[in-house]
Amino acid sequence: MRALYPTCSLALAALTGLGCGADLDVISVSFADELVEAPARNVEIAVVSDAPCDDTLNVAHEDLETVGTVLRRTRTRYPVAPDVGALEQAPRGRALSIDVSVLDAQDRQIARACDTLTLPAGQVATLDLRMHALARCSEAPTSIDLALVVDTSLGMRDANVGLDNQIIDLLKTFVQNLGVPGGRVRFSVASHGDTAPQQVLAPTLDREAASSALESLRGVAGGQAQHYGGASFAGAMLRDSALCDFRPAIVWVGGGADMRAPEDFQLAALQLSGTRGESFDDVFVYGVGISADAVGAMALLVDDLDLARLEGALTTMRTQEILRNVHSELQALVP
Question: 3-state SS string over 207-264?
Fold first, then answer.
C-alpha cells in the first residue's frame, strides 16, 4: 500500500575533508499548496530514535518522549535556513524519525509530517520534507477526531424553542451513541455567540467529559452567532492537535443569523481546506441548521468546501433523523 505520510528525497553527495566540520546535514521543509503554507511562521524539528513515524505522528509533537528517545529538538523560523543544524551530532548509520511541526503566529500547529532518515558515515544528507495540513500514517485512519461546534447566540435560543429546547439533550445522546467499528472517537467542544469562538473541551476520548461540556452550554445565550468564526476556530483546534490515526470532522450546529460580512466564510473555508486536490487533507464538516437564517448563513461556507454536508432541522424529529445521518457519514470516513 502506498505510504500516506509525506515522503522525502534523500540526496547524498560524497564529500572530502569532512574532518573540518564545516559541512552540515540539511533539512528543508516545503508545502505543496501556498494557501496551506501562508500562515507558517515557526518550525519545530525533533530527531527521534526507537520510534517509527507511525508512532510519533500518533502523539502530540510535544509528547514524543512518550514513544521514543528524542535526541534533539530545534525550533526555528520558517522557512528553515540550511545552516540551522537540526541534525547536528545525530548518530550516523541508524534509522531516525524526523518529526516536524509547523506553527502559525499564535503557535498553533498548521502542518505536521515525519520521515525516516539514516545518516550515512562520511557523507552529508539532505532531507526535503513535504508538509501537509494533516499528519498521515502509512495506513488510512481508523478513528474519528470530532469537534462539536455549538451556537450559543440569542438566535440559537429562539430557534431551540422549535425543538422544545432539546438540542443539548439530542447532542448528548448523539455523543453517547457514536461509534466507529475498529476505531475510537475523540471529542472536543467549541461554542460561539455569547462569547467569541472558544474551546469548551479539549480533545478527549472521555464521552462523559464531552456530555458534561455540552451540558455546561444548556441555557447559555447571548450575542449574535459567529458561524464562520466558530467553524474556522474548530478547524484550527483540530489541526493543532491532529494525530495521524484520527480523521478530523466537525458537527456544526447553528440557529442564529450571522450578521458578519458574508466574505468571512471564505476565510473559514481556507482554514477547513487542506492541500488542494488532496481530500485526505481536508476537515469534514456536517452542518445542522435549526433555523432558516442559520441554514442560509451556513450554506455559504458549505458550498465552498469539497468535503461538507448541510441539512436543515426545524423539528425535534428531523434533528434526530439528521444526527443519525451524521453518525453514518462519520463512520464512512474510516475503513
Answer: HHHHHHHHHCCCCCCCCCCCHHHHHHHHHHHHHHCCCCCEEEEEEEEECCCCCCCCCH
Which CA distances in Å does 152 have to 2, 175, 222, 224? 44, 19, 7, 8
Give strand pairing partners of 259.
Answer: none
How many domains are there within the chain? 2
* Domain assignment of residue 33, yes or no: yes
| Secondary structure element (H or E) that encloses residue 177, with its range | helix 167-177
Q: How far apart are CA 149 and CA 285, in angstroms?
A: 10
pTM for the predicted model, two decimal places: 0.91
Q: How far apart are CA 138 and CA 54, in angstroms?
A: 7
**Which helix (H) or strand (E) is 269 found in, with range?**
helix 264-272
92 and 181 fall within a common domain: no
Tell me if 136 is assigned to some domain.
Answer: no
Q: What tens digit of pLDDT does each residue of 112-163 get?
A: 999 999 999 989 999 999 998 999 999 999 999 999 999 999 999 999 998 9
Angstrom distance (rounded) from CA 323 to CA 126: 49
Residue-range definition of the domain harbouring residue 253: 143-332
- Convert the pLDDT of each residue in 198-231 to its tens digit: 999 999 999 999 999 999 999 999 999 999 999 9
Q: Do 165 and 122 share a domain, yes or no?
A: no
CA angle 277, 327, 176 (to 5 degrees): 130
Between helices 227-240 and 264-272, what is the axis angle to 10°? 20
What is the Cα–Cα distance from 108 to 143, expressed in whole angstroms?
Answer: 22
